[in-house]
Automatic annotation (TrEMBL):
The lineage of its organism: Eukaryota, Sar, Alveolata, Dinophyceae, Gonyaulacales. This is Uncharacterized protein. It comes from the Eukaryota.
C-alpha cells in the first residue's frame, strides 16, 4: 500500500578493500562505485528498489552518531547515548522510532553492511514471521549462500553441532525484517529476553547450538517469545567486523551457492515452523520440558 514505510538504520561510513576478490574488471568497477561504500550500496540495493516497490521512499533512521552532513535520504539521526550491546541499541532505537508514527514493517540493518545484491521484496514477506539470515542451520531444505551469514561459499550449512535427525536455525542479527505485530517481541529489552531464555526448553529434535554466540542468545530469545523465523536472502557482508566476513564471501560475492549438504534428513522451512508450532501447543498443556 502507498502509505507503507520501513525503518532502516544506515551509515555514511565509507569502506574500500577489494584487491583480493575474484571479480572481473566490470564487477570491480561496480564495487568501486557502490559496493565498498556501505551507504552507497544501501542506496543502490535497498533504498531505490524499496522506494519503487512501496511507491514512496521508506523512512530511514540512523540510531547512533553521524560524521559529516546528514544525507537527504535519512529522515532523522537519533542519538542513543551509551548502550550495552547491539540488542540494547536495537531496543532503544525501536522505542524512539515506534513513538513517532505507526509503521507496518521495521527493517533493522547493521550500519556498515555492504550490499552486493538487491534487497528482497518487503511486500512479499510472511506477516507472521521475522525474516533474517541464518548464522547457523541444520537439516533445512532450500537454503543458499544468500540466506547465511558465515561460510557462505560452502555447500554445507554452518553449524556448531552436527546431527543426522535434529534440525534448527540460529538467526543472524545484522539484518532482519519485522512485521509491526511482532516488533515489541523482536526488539524486546535484553533483560526480559534473558529471563525468557532461562525458562525456555528447546523442542524435541531441535539442534542444540553453542551458547557462547550472541546470535544464539538472540535466536533463543525469539523462540522463547513465540517468534518464528524465515530465511532472508541478502548478499553482502559487514565492512568493519572483527571477523573476516569479506573474505568468507569473496569467492561467491556475485553468485548464489546452494546449501545442498545441510544435513541428512532435511525438512522444508514450512515443516520446521510447523514443528515449532506443534511443540508450542504441546508445551502449553504440559509443564515438563524436554531439554534445557
Amino acid at each position: 500500500p502507498p502509505d507503507m514505510s520501513a525503518r532502516v538504520a544506515a551509515s555514511k561510513r565509507h569502506w574500500y578493500d577489494g584487491q583480493d576478490l575474484d571479480v572481473t574488471p566490470a564487477e570491480m568497477l561496480t564495487l568501486r562505485s557502490t559496493a565498498f561504500w556501505p551507504w552507497a550500496s544501501f542506496l543502490k540495493y535497498v533504498h531505490e528498489p524499496m522506494s519503487a516497490e512501496l511507491g514512496q521512499p521508506p523512512d530511514v533512521y540512523l540510531c547512533g552518531s553521524l560524521l559529516g552532513p546528514r544525507p537527504r535520504q535519512i529522515k532523522e539521526v537519533i542519538e542513543l547515548g551509551a548502550v550495552r550491546d547491539q540488542f540494547d541499541r536495537a531496543h532503544n532505537c525501536y522505542l524512539e522510532v515506534a513513538a513517532k508514527r505507526k509503521y507496518d514493517i521495521f527493517i533493522k540493518v547493521r550500519p556498515d553492511f555492504v550490499f552486493t545484491g538487491a534487497f528482497p521484496s518487503v511486500l512479499g514477506a510472511d506477516p507472521g514471521t521475522v525474516h533474517s539470515r541464518f548464522r547457523e542451520a541444520m537439516n533445512i531444505k532450500g537454503l543458499t549462500s544468500a540466506h547465511t551469514s558465515w561460510y557462505q561459499c560452502r555447500h554445507t550449512c554452518e553449524s556448531s553441532v552436527h546431527s543426522e535427525t535434529d534440525f534448527g536455525y540460529v538467526n543472524d542479527d545484522m539484518i532482519y525484517v519485522v512485521p509491526a505485530a511482532l516488533a515489541d517481541k523482536v526488539f524486546m529489552a535484553e533483560g526480559y529476553a534473558r529471563l525468557l531464555r532461562k525458562r525456555y526448553a528447546y523442542p524435541e529434535h531441535w539442534f542444540d547450538p553453542e551458547e557462547g554466540f550472541s546470535e544464539t542468545m538472540f535466536a533463543k530469545g525469539l523462540l522463547a517469545a513465540g517468534v518464528l523465523s524465515r530465511p532472508l536472502a541478502v548478499q553482502g557482508y559487514p565492512a568493519e567486523a572483527g571477523y573476516d566476513h569479506r573474505g568468507q564471501i569473496g569467492a561467491c560475492l556475485w553468485k548464489t551457492v546452494p546449501k545442498a549438504f545441510c544435513g541428512d534428513f532435511q525438512r522444508s522451512m514450512d515443516d520446521v515452523l510447523e514443528a515449532l508450532r506443534s511443540s508450542a501447543n504441546a508445551s502449553s498443556t504440559s509443564a515438563s520440558p524436554k531439554r534445557h
